[in-house]
Inverse folding.
């Protein structure tokens, strides 16, 4: 494991920001840290990067007890809030921040120019940060975060302000870095991005972990046996074993009891003289799962407080 979080707690006077959270992150994994506003995500990230110290619990980095002075150089953290010098030229800024990471000026310049080419930023080398669009400054911040080749890369809303083309460019670089062994912690509110990018996720709400696992397995765990079948015609006789949820022309959405076999439904339609054009199980989106769990845990917490 590149990172192990063990029983981490961080309390403030009126709030349990992080309340006994544990999870592990494997090397080379793209890991999603999810939760609504105020769930404790930012506090977790700040403890992982040594900005905050936990009240109790332990952080292991690459098998060793986390030491901010020793391990911070192996990390890259891109917060949602930008930390750039507005009056500096962006090329100079990339080189300067790379030197702060321990690179020589020659190596910092070489790596900066390479990243500028990768992200289609070469023509902006001599522009000032204050002249950049939100999306372009986001790309610059990404460069300054990854330029020292960190083992662990932490990205908080990395696609904020990016148009679809530039978002795809950044996405491809994140995939490339993960394939080369970089571990990525990805924090966002955009569930469709999580489904597309992340291998595993943890969901926190009100300072507590409420879900942890692979994206594929979580979607399987929360499936509701809902299927969709598309036939060559819309005038069909439905089997009595299914519960019709919706029919749009020749596309039928239905619920099947867990003890029933989907192959029997297929056989029914074929025996009735229909041609099956498409048939699939509809898995819930991460967005649906996210909303359901957050609402359930919030309601449970409110109930306990009333009691």
């Amino acid at each position: 494991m590149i990172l192990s979080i063990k029983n981490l707690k961080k309390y403030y006077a009126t709030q349990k920001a992080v309340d006994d959270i544990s999870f592990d992150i494997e090397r080379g994994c793209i890991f999603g840290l999810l939760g609504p506003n105020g769930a404790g995500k930012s506090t977790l990230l700040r403890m992982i990067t040594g900005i905050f110290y936990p009240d109790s619990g332990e952080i292991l980095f690459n098998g060793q007890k986390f030491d901010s002075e020793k391990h911070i150089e192996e990390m890259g953290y891109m917060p949602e809030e930008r930390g750039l010098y507005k009056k500096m030229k962006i090329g100079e800024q990339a080189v300067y921040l790379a030197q702060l990471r321990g690179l020589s000026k020659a190596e910092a310049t070489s790596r900066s120019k390479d990243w500028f080419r990768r992200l289609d930023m070469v023509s902006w080398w001599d522009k000032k940060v204050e002249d950049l669009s939100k999306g372009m400054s986001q790309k610059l911040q990404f460069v300054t975060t990854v330029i020292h080749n960190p083992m662990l890369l932490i990205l908080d809303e990395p696609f904020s302000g990016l148009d679809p083309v530039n978002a795809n460019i950044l996405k491809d670089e994140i995939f490339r870095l993960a394939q080369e062994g970089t571990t990525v912690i990805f924090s966002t509110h955009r569930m469709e991005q999580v489904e597309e990018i992340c291998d595993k996720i943890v969901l926190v709400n009100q300072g507590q972990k409420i879900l942890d696992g692979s994206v594929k397995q979580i979607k399987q765990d929360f499936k509701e046996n809902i299927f969709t079948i598309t036939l060559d015609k819309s005038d069909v006789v439905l089997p009595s074993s299914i519960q019709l949820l919706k029919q749009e022309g020749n596309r039928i959405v239905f619920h099947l009891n867990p003890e029933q076999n989907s192959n029997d439904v297929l056989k029914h339609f074929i025996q009735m003289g229909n041609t099956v054009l498409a048939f699939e199980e509809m898995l819930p989106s991460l967005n649906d799962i996210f909303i359901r769990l957050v609402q359930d845990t919030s309601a449970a917490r409110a109930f306990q407080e009333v009691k």
